[in-house]
Structures are given as structure tokens and as C-alpha cells.
Design brief:
This protein is of the alpha+beta class. It is built from eight helices and eight strands. The strands form three sheets. It has a three-stranded antiparallel sheet with strand order 3-2-5, with helices on one face. Strands 6-7-8 form a three-stranded antiparallel sheet, covered by helices on one side. α3 packs across α5.
Length: 290
């Protein structure tokens, strides 16, 4: 009897241990834990740690919580101007609603990737088909990816999927028309550069002409002002002379000085002989006034 009791005790302990471990649910930081009962989700554990479930009646399933990357296969799309482009892109996505993800996609990442591939390709096709090839090439580094992400919107919300970003790794043209497109783009840029150069030269010439005109006007005004000042100075000079020699003695002295200046001016070129008529004003310097 003691042996049977001991065995029964061991069985009970083992059963208790099994039930304990069967009731434990360990959740890691990079996952959601879904607690199911008879196939239906009854609880979602989002925080990492250890929780409990009803053993043998409930079970736990994991779905990823971290940000995930899906590399979309290269695909051909047609632009607005009927040119073929080869798009190579990738998607950053995550599970936003683990319940919806499990119900609609059976909790399978592969099914989610298939759904993402179809949705993103459809969005890329829609965006690129409304843009010319040149615009696509110019906006390949930023705006194009934003437009594609914006076009996706919340179309995957019902599957519990959130698209965080769509990025283009490569956006290229088929080899057979790549060179012709590059040559056309170079020609267009050369034409734009020539237009800018011509406009710049025209603006520069206009500035030069306007500046020359302003300088000419300023010179003319300055010359007129100088003549005016000169005339005013001469008038003031004559007024000063008139006041200085307004009596007979000063007038005679002035005549004397003027006569000496005239005599000096006549003795130029190395000559030293001055012949004057006695009646000439200059002779009065030497003969005196009669």
C-alpha cells in the first residue's frame, strides 16, 4: 500500500508540473501572443513577460511584432508617355492588428507578403502611369516613394497590416532605349541652359544700357551745374573787381597792372624789344598819362 501511495503521489506531482507548464505563456518583446480557445482568439498578449492560460483548453500562437522588410520583385511599368520603366523596390511593414492578421491571413507572413506585393505593385503602376518618364527620373529620390505610399493609404488595414514606407532601390529603363533617353534629356538640359544664358546676357545688356544712360545724365547735369557755378563765380569776381576799383586812383592802378601784364605777354618767344606807339595804352606805362 505504501508503494502504491508513493507512486500515486509522484503521478500527482508530475501532473501538477505538466499542468503548470501547460498554463504558462512566455511572450518575447518582438512578438504578440494570441491566446485561443477552441480555435477562437480570446486574448492578445502584447507586453513581454509570463502570463497564464487554461491548460489543455487554451493554446497560444505567436505572430511577429517587429518592423519587417519585404523585397518586391523587379517589375515593368508603363509611364504616362508610354515608356517602359523597371522598378525595384522594398516595403517596410508591420502587423498593426494581430487579430485581423490571424483571421484574414491565418497568421502567415508569407500570405501577408503576397498581399503586400499585389497592393504595392498596383499602387506603383497607378502612380507611375500618371507621370512622364522625365518626371519619374527627376523625382526618384523622394517624391515618387511618398506618392506610392500615399496611394496605398489604408488599403491593408483590414488585414491588420500597416505599410510604414515604400522605397525604390532602382528605377531604370530597358537597355534598348536607355541611351536615347539620356541623349534626349541632355539635349533638353542644354536647351534650358542656352535659354538661361541668353536671358542672362539680355538682362546684363539692359543693366549696362541703363547704367550708361544714368551716367550720361549725371555727367550732363554735373557739367550744367559746373557751368552755372562758374558763371556765378565770374559774376561775383566782376562784382568784387567793380567794388575794388570804383574810384579813379584804384582804376588807374588797375589799368597800370593790366598794361604790365600785356607787356609781359608780348615779350615771348625770346624777344626782348618792345616797340610801342606813344598813344597806345601800353605806352602810357612808360610815358605816363597825358
Amino acid at each position: 500500500m505504501k508503494g502504491a501511495g508513493k507512486i500515486l503521489g509522484i503521478v500527482i506531482v508530475l501532473a501538477a508540473v505538466v499542468m503548470l507548464f501547460s498554463s504558462l505563456v512566455i511572450t518575447y518583446p518582438d512578438e504578440y501572443k494570441l491566446i485561443k480557445q477552441f480555435g477562437e482568439i480570446v486574448r492578445v498578449v502584447e507586453e513581454p513577460g509570463v502570463t497564464l492560460k487554461i491548460p489543455f483548453i487554451q493554446d497560444a500562437a505567436s505572430v511577429p511584432k517587429q518592423l519587417q522588410l519585404y523585397d518586391i520583385p523587379k517589375s515593368d511599368v508603363i509611364t504616362k508617355d508610354k515608356k517602359t520603366m523597371i522598378v525595384d523596390a522594398f516595403v517596410l511593414w508591420k502587423i498593426s492588428d494581430p487579430v485581423q492578421f490571424t483571421r484574414h491571413l491565418n497568421g502567415q507572413v508569407a500570405q501577408a507578403q503576397s498581399r503586400i506585393n499585389a497592393t504595392v505593385f498596383s499602387s506603383m503602376k497607378s502612380v507611375i502611369s500618371n507621370m512622364d518618364q522625365a518626371d519619374i527620373i527627376e523625382n526618384r529620390d523622394g517624391k515618387l516613394a511618398l506618392d506610392i505610399s500615399g496611394n496605398i493609404g489604408g488599403s491593408l488595414d483590414s488585414y491588420g497590416i500597416q505599410v510604414v514606407a515604400v522605397e525604390t532601390k532602382a528605377l531604370d529603363m530597358p537597355d534598348d532605349n536607355k541611351q536615347s533617353v539620356y541623349e534626349r534629356m541632355i539635349s533638353e538640359r542644354d536647351n534650358i541652359a542656352a535659354t538661361y544664358t541668353a536671358e542672362g546676357k539680355s538682362s546684363a545688356q539692359k543693366i549696362i544700357n541703363d547704367t550708361s544712360k544714368e551716367i550720361s545724365v549725371m555727367k550732363s547735369e554735373a557739367a550744367a551745374e559746373a557751368e552755372k557755378i562758374k558763371a556765378e563765380g565770374e559774376a561775383q569776381y566782376m562784382q568784387i573787381l567793380s567794388r575794388a576799383y570804383n574810384d579813379a586812383d584804384k582804376a588807374d592802378f588797375y589799368e597800370f597792372v593790366r598794361a604790365l601784364d600785356a607787356a609781359k605777354a608780348s615779350l615771348t618767344g625770346g624777344g626782348n624789344t618792345l616797340i610801342l606807339d606813344k598813344t597806345s595804352p601800353l605806352a602810357q606805362v612808360f610815358y605816363g598819362y597825358e
